[in-house]
Amino acid sequence: MSFLKITSPHGHGPLTTAGIMQTVLLATLPGVAVMTWFFGPGTLINLLFGGALALAFEAAALRLRDRNPGPYLRDYSVLVTSTLLCIALPPYSPWWLIATGIFSSVILGKHVFGGLGYNPFNPAMVGYVILLISFPLQMSTWQAPRGLDAVPGVMDALEALLLPAHYDAVTMATPLDVLRQNQGLLMADLQAQKPQFGRWAGVGWEWVNLAFLAGGLWLLFKRVFTWHAPVGLLVALGLCAAIGFDSGSSESGGSPLLHWLSGATMFGAFFIITDPVSSAVSNRGRLIFGALIGVLIYLIRVHGNYPDAVAFAVLILNFAAPLIDQYTQPAVYGSKPVKRDEP
Fold first, then answer.
1. In terms of C-beta density within 10 A (0-12 exposed, 13-18 middle, 19 or more buried), how is residue 159 classed?
2. In whole angstroms, what separates CA 300 from the centre of its chain?
3. CA distance linking residue 267 with residue 213, whole number of Å
4. Which of the 8 DSSP states describes residue 329?
5. Among residues 177, 180, 181, 202, which one has the least CA distance to residue 191?
6. Contact 115, 78 (CB under 8 A)
7. Three-class SS of residue 144?
8. Cis before residue 164, ω within 30 degrees of 0?
9. Is 180 in contact with 68 (CB distance < 8 Å)?
10. Please, what is the average pLDDT of the chain?
């Protein structure tokens, strides 16, 4: 009998890279649908254009590395990267902004380190941070959430993509930006007087976060990842917000519900920090990894220069993931931990 000569790890069961990536893409659909309802088809145009660019950059990089692009393009991993980045970008972004972000994610965030499985940082967040630092004005230009009957149409989205200089958008500061710039208003007055706020958090944003929460819970049900990192992030962020709420004074950092349902909280908790390559490995390590990201998100949102901080917090903890792994790896089965002799 002849045996196949293959090396570990040996995969058993229905989970494959392509299957997992397809499941992640499907899980983003509720969030994308709600974003489209409140902000219009700009996000869909971003996704289509960004996905096409990502496939082209991936194929070119693989050719330069003397690899056959076929198998890598069919595992959907680069489409997951482009989808996560384009969801985070403002709708109706110009083509050059999307192209710069996709190039940074695919080439600088992934292939520079050796491709899928070797990247120490989340590729989508690498592209996002590069864009945020380089083009802060374009990255902070978000449409006002007005509902599907009042938002721009498909032709407007194409004009914004291809002819950004000729496109005039109705923009609005995000709720987190309003909170960070608050001067003297009590939280109750701020939420009552500013049109950015809805029942629990920002208008539109609260429903976007709930939609990504639904998609993330479905991924948990499908066992794509464990609960440790998302729960660590949400619990730590909620505790920090509860401590800093200060009964809603003018110095308040916002309630836990406001932070959970604003910005990219649920998107980051279930779709970004759960990246198996750039996060911690053990369950205890993932819990610590997520909790530290939650603390950093709160500190940067309330005391930093950026209203939302998911990308920065994730990249900082990507640096720390190997150290977390070193102290949280379980002992090998059947072995005993080595005790150091006292001097």
1. middle
2. 16
3. 7
4. P
5. 202
6. no
7. coil
8. no
9. no
10. 85
Q: Which amino acid is at 100?
A: T
SS3 4: coil
For residue 335, pLDDT over 80 is answered with no
The count of other CB atoms within 10 Å of the CB of residue 68 is 10
User: 244-259: per-residue pLDDT in tens?
Assistant: 887 767 666 788 988 8
CB-side exposure of 124: number of CA atoms within 13 Å?
27
Mean pLDDT of 289-295: 96
Alpha-carbon gap, residue 229 to 290, rounded angstroms: 4
Which run of H or of E encompasses 301? Answer: helix 283-303
| Assigned token pair, 54 | 């990502």
Verdict on whether the full-model pTM lies above 0.90: no
Q: What share of the chain is helix, strand, coil (3-state, %, to 5)?
A: 60, 0, 40
Average pLDDT over residues 302-322: 89
* Rounded Cα gap, residues 303 and 305, in angstroms: 7
Detail the DSSP E strand segments found in 35-184. Answer: none
The contacts of residue 158 (CB under 8 Å, 6+ apart) are: 45
Over residues 160-203, the pLDDT tens digits come to 888 877 666 666 667 777 777 767 667 676 666 666 677 777 77
- Could you give the CA distance from residue 115 to residue 84 in angstroms, rounded to a whole number? 17
The C-alpha atoms of residue 36 and residue 66 are separated, in whole angstroms, by: 39
Per-residue pLDDT tens over the stretch 27-80: 999 999 999 999 889 999 999 999 999 999 999 999 999 999 888 889 999 999
Judge contact between 53 and 101, C-beta under 8 A.
Answer: no
293-304: burial string, b at 16+ Cβ within 10 Å, e else? bbbbbbebbbee
What's the pLDDT tens digit per position in 125-145? 999 999 999 998 888 888 878
Start-to-end CA distance of the chain, whole Å, equals 57
Q: Tokens 């409140």 map to which residue?
A: 38
Q: Is 317 helix (H, G, I), strand (E, B) or coil?
A: helix
